Every structure is written in structure tokens, then in C-alpha cells.
Amino acid sequence: MPNSIAYVTLLIWPVVIATIFFSFKPKSAIIYAVFFSYLILPVKTSFDLPGLPELDKTTISNISIFIFAVIFGGFKISNYPNSKTLAFVIVIFIISPIFTTYNNDIPIFLNHRTIPAMSWYDGLSVFVNQIFTIFPFLIGAQLLNNEESHRKLLFVLVFSCLIYSLPMLLEVRLSPQLHTWIYGFLPHDFGQQVRAGGYRPMVFLGHGLLVAIFTAMAFISAICLAKMKTRVLGFSPVAVSAYLLAVLILCKSLGAIIIATAFAPLVMIMKTRKLALVSAVLALIVLCYPALRGSGLIPVATISQLSGSVDGERQESLAVRLRNEDALLEKAGEKPFFGWGTWGRNRLYEGWNNADSTITDGTWIIVVGTYGWVGYLACFGLLCYPLIAQFRKNRLYRELSFATVGLGIVHLVNLLDLIPNSSLSPITWLIAGALAGNLSVKTARKRPNVQDAPAVSGASGVPPEPRSAELTLK
After folding, report:
1. Which residue has the higher pLDDT, 290 or 78?
2. DSSP code for 198
3. Is the pLDDT of residue 463 over 60?
């Protein structure tokens, strides 16, 4: 059970966010508020008020940031995206739960209990929650849609992870206890945080896998800053990258390590145009993953064998996960358009006591089962759109800076992790919005195609910056 500190922290957090907006420029304040809210606030702690979704760390921070973005940042609700496609998908994302509710108005009768039907009250609650969820995306698209903001996002990812690495290293040494010490309870199974004779750090994110993918994103961000020759608080970005790689290895998450180490050399050696192409292709694969998975085009057997060559325990864990995905996909196919809705209706129940027999780890399988293909395409369409749209017209390549494409690679790291894990966060939505907004901005003329011009110094893909270039906290 959360202690009083957990609830008091949630209650006073809007005041903390207000302080951040008074202390920093609006765009920087938005970024810091989103990051610090995600990294500091307790998980599985919420206020349940009538007619509203649970007010937890995500909803409280998103609402507060939205209000202060309107007051101090000049955010205007009336400013819709220039892209009709993007505006349409946003609308579908918000209203699709209404159709999910209408399609699930009959209870599910089990042997010893009944899973209730979705009522108009449930539909209203989910509808409001969708609005709260998409706030960071809308704010990012309108206020963080330029190269300067994308550089700032890369910087804050690195800076916040450097600070966060201190409690992470403490938990690597002592075991993940900070959430228990401060907020009064352990939010997840302790056994899942034990790996390779040591511990995964969990801090305040609820699971070691979430800490690992956040560190992987920060590591790739540091690589991007190194390629742009941008120092971090006076430190060499190369040294910062090496440090974050070491911290990532200590997180003991094989998936995050593989993704990060696969993209790091690509970011270092590839030009901006080719990086944009790679991110577009991989984002399209992520968007189509449920269809590819259901049709057997994903070589799951090969992937399972490769994991077994690393660790037999990992292979068994992966095999269990894949069997669950097959079963959940089969059930999702019974209501393919709008899904099974909430109350655990998307899950499978077996035995005389109707025990829940499924494990839902990946964000994609949760969304497909709960909101169907319509909800999935709306959710992942918004997340993948910025990267796929880069490939839509050749002229876009000439308008994108390396900071923007590099941030796209960081976002892609997170997207790929949404397949095996539930790592969708306000940071994901903020970055997706910042990238999507950049594509919607109309420029007066094309930028020079500097990434394909003869290199002046190095192979950075952008005009070389002075060695003294440095981003600051403001």
C-alpha cells in the first residue's frame, strides 16, 4: 500500500510543475516537467474520483503541464495540425473508445464470476483518459516542433539519465528498494529485478525494463550529441556516451542492450538521409507488427533459438510470452475492429476458478486486445507517423536536420521496445508530437542538402559546430 508520502507527492506535484515553469523558459519547462514527472512520481498510486479516470502520476502531470503550457507557453487548443492525416488519426484515437464501449455492452459469464459489460460511464472515463494521454503529443507538436527544441530534447534525455544514474547505481548495489523506502511499497515482483547474480535498478519507474529502455534512449541521444560535437554541461559527449553504455549494461536488460548497440554505430556512420530512411522502414514494420505476427511472417522460432544461445532461462521466458501472444491474438480476432474493452475482458481465463491464464507484456497486444485494430492503428499511427512521413516526399529529407532525425532514432528505440514491453510513457508521446509537428511546419524555402554535400570536417551529416558548442539547462 502507498504511504502518505506517495499521496502527498501527487497532491503537491502541480505546485512543483508551476515552479518549473516559473524557473525556466516555457519550452524547456515543458520538457523538464514531463521528464521529472515520469522519473520521480510513484507508480500504482492514484486518486479515484467519480466520472474521471484514475488520477495517477501520468494524468496529474499531463493535466498540470497542459494548463501551464496554455498560460505560459502560448499553447492554443484551436491550432490544429496542418496535416489532415494527423488530425484525423488524433480524432480517431480520442473517440474510438466510445465505439469500443458500444461493442461491449454484454457481460462475460464465467464459472464463478462475471466480468461486467462496459457502460456509458466506462466509455466516458476512457474517452477522458485518451484526452489526458495525448496532451504531451499535442503540446510537443505545437511548441517543440523545431530543430532547437529537438536538440533540447536530446540534451534533457542525457542530462536526466546522468542524474538518474546515481540512484540506479545505488540499486544495482543494494537491490531496488528506493520506491519502498520513500513511497512505502514495492510496485512489482522483486524476483523479476534479479538477473545475472545481481539486480536491475527500478528506482521510481515500476520495473527494471523501463529503466533500461530509458537509459538506452539516453545513450543514443548522447551518441547524437557526440556526432553534432555538442558538449553536455562541459563534459565530452563521447565520455558521457561511454558512461551511459556502462550504466545500460548494469541494467541487465538484453533487449535494451541489443537495440541500443545496434543503432549506435548506425547513428555514428550513416548520413542524415539514410538514417531517415532506416527509421521510416522500421517504424512501418512496427506499425504492421500485429498483422505480420498473426500471419506468421515474424520468425519467432528463430528469435527464440537465438535467445536460447544466450541464456536458457531467457528462451523459456520468451517462449511463454510468445504463446501468450498467440492466444491473445486469437481472442482479439473475435472482436477485431474495436476490441474487448476494459475490465480485463481482453484476457483469457481457465480452470474451475477462472484464473487469469495470460500475460500481457507488450503495449501492442494490450492495445489490440482492448481497443481492436482501429484503436491500435490510431495509437501506433500517431507514434509511427513522424518517422514514416519522413519517407513520404524526397523534399522532406532536405528540410530535416540531424538533430531531428537523431531524435527520430531515439524515438524508434522506444517504439521497438513497445513490442516486447509496456514502455509507452508521456516522454514517448512528447517526442512523437515534437517530431510530428516538425513535419507539419511549412518552411519558406528548402534547407541546403548539407548531409549529402562533401564533408568539411568529419562525417556528421550536418555543418560542423565549434568544439565549444554546449547546451545549457535554460
Report:
1. 290
2. E
3. no
Which residue, chain included where needed, has cell 523534399? 395
The β-bridge partners of 114 are 109
pLDDT digits (tens, 9 = 90+) for 42-64: 999 999 887 678 899 999 999 99
Residue 410: partners with Cβ closer than 8 Å, 6 or more residues away:
154, 157, 217, 220, 221, 224, 431
Scanning the structure block, which residue is given the C-alpha cell 500504482? 44
Can you read off the three cell numbers belonging to residue 316? 523459456
Select from 144, 201, 208 the least CA-distant residue to 167. 201
> CA dist 39 to 115, 232, 295, 306, Å?
34, 20, 38, 33
For cell 524515438, name the residue: 411
Distance of CA 122 to the CA centre of its chain: 25
- C-alpha span between 232 and 253 (Å, rounded): 26
In sequence order, the β-bridge partners of residue 246 are none
Q: What are the residue ranges of helices labelled H in 175-294?
A: 178-183, 208-227, 237-250, 254-269, 272-287, 289-294
pLDDT tens-digit map of 414-425: 999 999 899 999
3-state secondary structure of 231: strand
C-alpha cell at 218: 539516453
Q: Which of 338, 416, 439 is nearest to 93 (CA)?
A: 338
List 349's β-bridge partners, or say none. 356
Cell numbers linked to 229: 560535437
Grid cell 517530431 — which residue? Answer: 435
CA-to-CA distance for 474 and 470, rounded, in angstroms?
12
Grid cell in block for residue 262? 545496434
